[in-house]
Amino acid sequence: MSDVTRILSQIESGDPEAAEQLLPLVYEELRKLAAAKLALEKPGQTLQATALVHEAYLRLVGNSDSEQHWNSRGHFFGAAAEAMRRILVESARRKQCLRHGGEFERHDVDSLALSSPKTPDELLALSDALDRLAEANTQAAELVKLRFFAGLTSEQAAAALGVSPRKANQIWAYAKAWLLESLGHEPL
User: Fold this and answer.
1) Which of 82, 100, 118 is the last residue of a domain?
2) Are residues 17 and 95 in the same domain?
3) Cβ neighbourhood burial of 156 (10 Å; 0-12, 13-18, 19+)
4) Do 69 and 135 belong to one domain?
5) Mean pLDDT computed over 90-103
6) Rg of the chain on CA atoms, in Å
7) C-alpha span between 111 and 95 (Å, rounded)
8) Co-location of 92 and 49 in the same domain
9) Largest Cα–Cα distance in the chain?
10) Looking at 100, 129, 164, which one is the last position of a domain?
11) Is 68 within 8 Å of 61 (Cβ atoms)?
12) Is the pLDDT of residue 144 over 70?
């Protein structure tokens, strides 16, 4: 009898300390299961593997009101996989609800990257939009010039502006969204 099966038997018999012994033994395997499940989800999933493992574990072992009977290690992991599936389904249903923004479509600003102007008209439109951005937010316009026209990386542009890379990424996301909307692309 493996350690996991022995601990599962102890949990079934009501040993309160057995649940604490189980998690360290199965954590890595549960985390791999969770990561595999999340890899199949659409990009933008806010649930992380660690949170999914912990929630599933609590549903399996943490609820002392319901009697769980696991015949083997495989049975336990099958139940864990089912618990993870249910958590993901609940999360997806919650996101579809109107009160949780179900009517909105998520757009990743990086996937809507500004492309290089292909015609003189596109370059002029971008330049005009950049001038309007400079009136609204000088720092954002400077960052766009550094990244788009000078070809600096995010870290290099952040250093040039004297801001942290994280702040530069926030400004970059704002500037791209502002310019895309200003250039007549789909509003974000």
Assistant:
1) 100
2) yes
3) middle
4) no
5) 70
6) 25
7) 21
8) yes
9) 77
10) 100
11) yes
12) yes
Structurally, how many domains does the chain consist of?
Answer: 2
CATH number of the domain encompassing residue 139: 1.10.10.10
Q: What is the pLDDT of residue 77?
A: 73
Residues 132 and 161 in one domain: yes
3 state SS for 134-167:
HHHCHHHHHHHHHHHHCCCCHHHHHHHHCCCHHH
Query: Could you tell me how far CA 22 lies from the centroid of its own chain?
Result: 28
Do 170 and 129 belong together in one domain?
Answer: yes
Q: Please check whether residue 187 lies inside any domain of the structure.
A: no
Q: Which residue has the tokens 């998520």?
A: 106
Q: Can you give the pLDDT at residue 168?
A: 93
The conformation of residue 45, written as its DSSP 8-state character, comes to -
Position 110 scores a pLDDT of 47
Element (H, E) at 7: helix 3-12
Question: What does the alpha-carbon distance between residue 147 and residue 153 come to, in Å, rounded to a whole number?
Answer: 6
Q: Are 133 and 56 within one domain?
A: no
* Dist CA 146 CA 49 (whole Å): 37
Q: What percent of the chain stands above pLDDT 70?
A: 69
The pTM score is 0.44
Distance CA 173, CA 84 (A): 33
